[in-house]
């Protein structure tokens, strides 16, 4: 029987190409905690494990640089990439959304943002969506009070409403497709539960396999959780699968962390040599 990691890679191959998205996962999960810069060759070596051609990776890197997400530095014939300024705030918000425990100090109120038709509307919409805001109507965005408002939307008109009455709960149901999010969580668990079970049985994973599994774990999890507004427990169904999905992701992540970091110790390179050691924050992800 094929190893669960092989089946996950096979599933990835059947999907539309997401090479650029995987690059973003690698940077956010593994490179930013180690100084933020990495040699293109390190990335190419990783993508070989996914059978993704070097030309496809180079094209994805060029597009991300052209779109302002990455910057490139040439040292001789070698290229090194790091996050551009544009990407830092988005990455910081996404990092909190993925790895931190959901907030538990909700006040029972929602924040409403009204976005006009200015030139920056598209940027505001994307930033709000990535920050966990929902949109019940065009130009109207909503999130539990306390969710940070991204810089791109600081010019919005801001109001507060209560979710204690029927109108507030209708606003809630219209703002987020929770049924679709629940289905996505269930699919994530179905994909990664066999990997968790294999690790629990002591399955042999090389350091390279551990790094590949870690990147794919976060790649798939973030595609769901970044669309989840992380609503307060009191507003969620009793059988909400987001809790179990987070627990599963955290268990696998903690099991893969040490061997995957060892792979980066031995193979990760930046313009100064080996990647620096990861910051301690890595050990605190998922409440570890």
Short description, anyone?
With 288 residues, this protein is α+β, with helices and mostly antiparallel strands. The chain is built from 10 helices and 9 strands. The chain has a 4-stranded antiparallel sheet, covered by helices on one side. Strands 1-3-2 form a 3-stranded antiparallel sheet. A two-stranded antiparallel sheet has the order 8-9.
Structure description:
- Strands 5-6-4-7 form a 4-stranded antiparallel sheet, with helices on one face.
- It has 2 domains: 1-104 and 177-288, Arc Repressor Mutant, subunit A (Orthogonal Bundle), CATH 1.10.10.10; 109-162.
- It is globular and about 55 Å long.
- It has helices at residues 4-14, 19-31, 40-48, 54-66, 85-99, 121-130, 166-175, 178-200, 207-225, 242-267; strands at residues 37-39, 70-75, 78-83, 109-114, 134-137, 140-144, 157-162, 269-270, 273-274.
- It has 288 residues and is an alpha+beta fold.
- α2 packs across α9.
- It is built from 10 helices and 9 strands.
- InterPro entries: PaaX-like_N, PaaX_C, PaaX_trns_reg, WH-like_DNA-bd_sf, WH_DNA-bd_sf.
- It holds the Pfam family PaaX_C.
């Amino acid at each position: 029987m094929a190893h669960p990691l092989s089946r996950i890679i096979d599933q990835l191959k059947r999907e539309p190409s997401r090479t650029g998205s995987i690059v973003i996962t690698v940077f956010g999960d593994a490179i930013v905690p180690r100084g933020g810069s990495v040699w293109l060759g390190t990335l190419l070596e990783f993508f070989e494990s996914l059978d993704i051609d070097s030309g496809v990776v180079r094209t994805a890197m060029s597009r991300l640089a052209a779109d302002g997400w990455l910057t490139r530095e040439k040292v001789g014939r070698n290229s090194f990439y790091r996050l551009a300024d544009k990407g830092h705030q988005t990455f910081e918000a996404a990092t909190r959304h993925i790895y931190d425990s959901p907030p538990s100090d909700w006040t029972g109120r929602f924040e409403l943002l009204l976005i006009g038709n200015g030139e920056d509307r598209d940027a505001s919409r994307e930033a709000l969506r990535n920050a966990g805001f929902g949109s019940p109507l065009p130009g109207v965005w909503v999130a539990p009070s306390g969710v940070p408002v991204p810089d791109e939307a600081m010019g919005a008109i801001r109001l507060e409403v209560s979710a204690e009455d029927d109108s507030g709960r209708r606003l809630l149901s219209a703002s987020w497709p929770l049924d679709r999010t629940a289905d996505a969580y269930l699919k994530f668990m179905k994909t990664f539960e066999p990997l968790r079970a294999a690790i629990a049985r002591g399955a042999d994973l090389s350091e390279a396999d551990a790094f590949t599994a870690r990147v794919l774990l976060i790649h798939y999890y973030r595609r769901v959780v970044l669309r989840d507004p992380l609503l307060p427990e009191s507003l969620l169904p009793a059988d909400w699968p987001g809790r179990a999905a987070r627990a599963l992701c955290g268990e696998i992540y903690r099991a893969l962390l040490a061997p995957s970091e060892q792979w980066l110790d031995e193979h990760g390179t930046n313009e100064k040599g080996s990647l620096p050691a990861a910051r301690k924050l890595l050990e605190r992800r998922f409440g570890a």
